[in-house]
Each structure stands twice: as structure tokens, then as C-alpha cells.
Design goal:
One of its GO terms (molecular function) is aldehyde dehydrogenase (NAD+) activity. InterPro entries: NAD(P)-bd_dom, NAD(P)-bd_dom_sf, NAD(P)-dependent_oxidoreduct. Pfam families: NAD_binding_10. This is Nucleoside-diphosphate-sugar epimerase. The chain is of the alpha/beta class. It has a domain of 182 residues: NAD(P)-binding Rossmann-like Domain (Rossmann fold, 3-Layer(aba) Sandwich). Helix content is 44%, strand content 20%. A 7-stranded parallel sheet has the order 3-2-1-4-6-7-11, with helices on both faces. Strands 8, 10, 12 and 15 form a 4-stranded mixed sheet that branches. A two-stranded antiparallel ribbon has the order 5-14. The two termini are 36 Å apart. The mean pLDDT is 93.
Length: 303
């Protein structure tokens, strides 16, 4: 196959490219800025239909590994910015891919859409603009692609690992914290986790199978206490992570939501409802049995 990867300079995009090449497929890496390993500089969110169509000519499939993540914060409504980053470029890209005769596609999304699907009573999409944008992204992608172009949605949880100078952005303040002399505390709850390489493996599997499924990806399920302890050990500062009751966490999120309201800031994940995410066990059935210890070590020593 010949696959075009949008966001090919990012953490996940680089691992998708590596896995494709490892299996003998041809690749084209597209990114907004020129850097080593990028075959073509193009901002998909601003590109014309003709530019996208020309970029896709001769390719069997396409991967969208770009977009805006849940840390999007700014003044005023965040929803239009999330739609511009996650929905509009995917629709334009898959419209061009369909016309170019592509036979497979994959979009890297979020595991929050999985939990909203299986636990509608949690109301995640209603509470969080980011989750709504990922839901809309998947729906619009498939409507645009049509029945002849299956689109797999890779539902990505917390990711560990590195790719050149890229690290998971969520990990930056956490690693700084576990390296410090500050005592470590963690509330109840936890998350599914995977390595960046695991995302690459799952994405290429989906492309080779021409899958049109929603594919939640996990290699391990980690309690917060376990995650922080393993990061601290990997960073050379091993110590006990003490359990924290839920009430101060809930209070901090309520206060954060109030302060955001005063300043006019709106994040992708609504702060006052974050306890409904972080105090739950957001666990997935692993798609392959593997430890993320190596990826945790990479993340902890990358800076």
C-alpha cells in the first residue's frame, strides 16, 4: 500500500509512519511545518480541495493524525476552534481521498468517545466540547467518505513514548512534578494506557484490514497511584504515592471551573466536570498484552 499520513511529524504520526515502513508499505508524510522526515509541507486545515486532491493522487489510503487535543484553552467559545481543528479538515481530506480512489482511511481520535458510547448515562459529550468534537469528527468522516471508503477511528487513551523531540504533552507537568521533592498524591480512579508504538500498530492493522470500525486501543490499565509511582521511578525519584480522598479533587475542579468562567476561558474538557472523568476507572480491554514500562521510561527521561 501507499499511505499518506497527515500530522506525520507528530508523536503518533511518526509511529504510524515507522510501522507502515516496517511492514513494507510506501508512505508520504505531510505536516504544517518543514522538518526532517516530512515529505510535503501543507496545512490541511487551510488547503484547497485541489491541493488535497493532488496530494492524495496515487495513494491507497490516508491517516489523519493531526487536529486539536483536549488541552485547547482560550477566551470565548472553544467549540468553533475544535471543529476547525478536528472536524473540518477531516471532512475536506476524506472528500478528496474518496475522489482520489483511496480504499482505506484511519482517523486518530480519543477513547472518551468509546466511553460516551458505552456509558451514555455519564453525559460526556453533553458536558465536554472536546468529546463532542471527536464524536462529530467520526460521524462526518464516515458520511463524507461514503460506503466505498471505510474509515477506522482509533480511540486513543493516555499515551507514553517519544518520537525524536516529541513527547506526550499531558506528561510534561506530570514528569516535572514526579522529579521534584513534592510529595506525591493520587485520587481513586485510573486510565487505559498505551505506547505511541502501540497506536502505530493498531492503526496499520486497521489500514491493512480496510477496517471501518471504532477501535479502542490499550495495552495496560493503570491506577493513578501506579502511573505516578512508575513515572517517578523511571525519572530517578522513586517514592510512595499516597492515596487522596475524592472530595478535595472535586472541590478543586469546581473552583477551577468557576475561575474559568470569571476569566472567560473555555477548555476542551470542562473543568467543573473533570471529576466525572479522572475519578473513574476508564479501563479498556487491551488489544494486545504488553507492558508500557519501556514507553514510561522514555517519557520520564525525555527532558
Amino acid at each position: 500500500m501507499k499511505i499518506l499520513v497527515v500530522g506525520g511529524s507528530g508523536l503518533l504520526g511518526q509511529h504510524v509512519l515507522d510501522e507502515l515502513r516496517k511492514r513494507g508499505h510506501e508512505t508520504t508524510a505531510i505536516a504544517r511545518a518543514a522538518r526532517e522526515g516530512v515529505d510535503r509541507t501543507l496545512d490541511v486545515s487551510k488547503a484547497s480541495h485541489d491541493e488535497l486532491r493532488e496530494a492524495l493522487d496515487g495513494h491507497d489510503g490516508v491517516v489523519f493524525a493531526g487536529g486539536m487535543d483536549d488541552r485547547a484553552v482560550g477566551r470565548g467559545p472553544v467549540e468553533p476552534r475544535l471543529r476547525a481543528g478536528n472536524v473540518a479538515p477531516v471532512a475536506a481530506l476524506l472528500r478528496a481521498a474518496r475522489e482520489a480512489g483511496c480504499t482505506r482511511a484511519a482517523v486518530l481520535g480519543s477513547y472518551y468517545t468509546y466511553f460516551d458510547r458505552v456509558h451514555p448515562e455519564w453525559g460526556l459529550a453533553a458536558k465536554h466540547p472536546y468529546v463532542r468534537s471527536r464524536q462529530e469528527q467520526a460521524r462526518v468522516a464516515r458520511e463524507t467518505a461514503g460506503p466505498g471508503l471505510p474509515v477506522a477511528v482509533i480511540e486513543v487513551p493516555f499515551v507514553f513514548g517519544v518520537a525524536e523531540d516529541r513527547v506526550p504533552q499531558w506528561s510534561v507537568p506530570i514528569v516535572k512534578w514526579v522529579r521534584s521533592n513534592t510529595p506525591l498524591f493520587a485520587p481513586a480512579g485510573g486510565t487505559a494506557a498505551t505506547s505511541a508504538r502501540g497506536v502505530g500498530v493498531a492503526t496499520v492493522d486497521a489500514l491493512e484490514q480496510a477496517s471501518g470500525a471504532d477501535i479502542p486501543v490499550a495495552e495496560e490499565n493503570l491506577q493513578w497511584t501506579d502511573m505516578f509511582a512508575r513515572l517517578a521511578a523511571a525519572a530517578g525519584r522513586p517514592r510512595r504515592v499516597r492515596p487522596m480522598p475524592s472530595w478535595p479533587v472535586r472541590g478543586a475542579f469546581k473552583l477551577g471551573g468557576f475561575l474559568n468562567g470569571l476569566t472567560g476561558k473555555q477548555p476542551g474538557l470542562t473543568v467543573r466536570h473533570m471529576d466525572g472523568l479522572l475519578l473513574r476507572e476508564l479501563y479498556l480491554e487491551p488489544f494486545r498484552r504488553a507492558t508500557v514500562d519501556d514507553a514510561i521510561r522514555e517519557t520520564a527521561v525525555a527532558r
